[in-house]
Amino acid sequence: MINISTPDLCDAHEAQIAAGSVKVLDAIFNNYGGHDCFFGQAVTIKCFEDNSIVKQLVGTPGKGRVVVMDGGGSLRRAILGDMLAENAASNGWAGLVINGCIRDCNEIAAIDLGVKALNTHPMKTEKRGLGDLNIDVTFAGQTIRNGEWVYSDNNGILVSEEKLDL
Fold first, then answer.
1. I need a labelling partner for 59 at 20 to 30 A (CA). Which of 68, 90, 97, 161 fits?
2. What torsion do the CA atoms of 71, 49, 51, 101 make, to the nearest 10 degrees?
3. pLDDT (tens digit, 9 = 90+) per residue, 55-66?
4. What is the pTM of this model?
C-alpha cells in the first residue's frame, strides 16, 4: 500500500483545486477501516437505507478502486457491516467513502480496507433491492463522478478528474 498525504497533494495541485478539477470534500468523515490511507478510481453508488447494491458491488473484483456511496447522510441505519467490508477487502477494493453510517466498527478496524463514514449505528438496512450504480453523487460539498480518482488519509479526502502523481 502506497502512503499518500492529502496536504501534500493539495499543495502540489493548488491550480487544479482553484480550477475545480481537484476537489476537497468537507471534513465530515471519520476513519473506521484497517487502512487510514487509500486511493483509487471511484465507483459511485446512490442508495438510502438499503445496501442491496453495495452487497452486489463488493462481491465483484475491486481492482484497487474505491466505492463512493451516497447513503443520503442517514444516521438511522448502517449501510456497511463487517461481512460486506470483509467481502470488499477479499475482492480487492481499496476502500469505501460513505455518506452514511457503518456498524461492526471494531471488526472493520481489523480489516485490510480503507473505510470513511459519517458515524456508526447498530441497525442494519432493509433489503429492498433499491439503489443506483455509476451515477454522479453529491455530498460533502462536492459532486463525485464515476471514474474520478479518490485520495483519502487522516487529513481528508480529495477527488480528482485525473490520476495524480503521488
1. 161
2. 60
3. 999 999 999 999
4. 0.96
| Residues in the chain, total | 166
The CB density around residue 16, as the number of other CB atoms within 10 Å, is 18
Task: Kindly provide the b/e burial profile for residues 124-136, where b requires at least 16 CB atoms within 10 angstroms of the residue's own CB.
Answer: ebeeeeebeeeee
Q: What is the per-residue pLDDT across 13-44, written as a single tens digit (0 to 9) for each?
A: 999 999 999 999 999 999 999 999 999 999 99
Cell numbers standing for residue 81 = 457491516
CA torsion angle 76 40 52 45 (round to 10): 70
Find, among 134, 132, 155, 152, the residue nearest to 144 by Cα. 134
Contact partners, residue 62, CB within 8 Å, separation at least 6: 40, 88, 91, 92, 93, 94
C-alpha closest to that of 45 among 147, 133, 150: 133
Q: What radius of gyration do the chain's Cα atoms show?
A: 14
Q: Classify domain 6-160 at the CATH topology level.
A: Glucose Oxidase; domain 1 (3.50.30)
Domain edges within the chain:
6-160
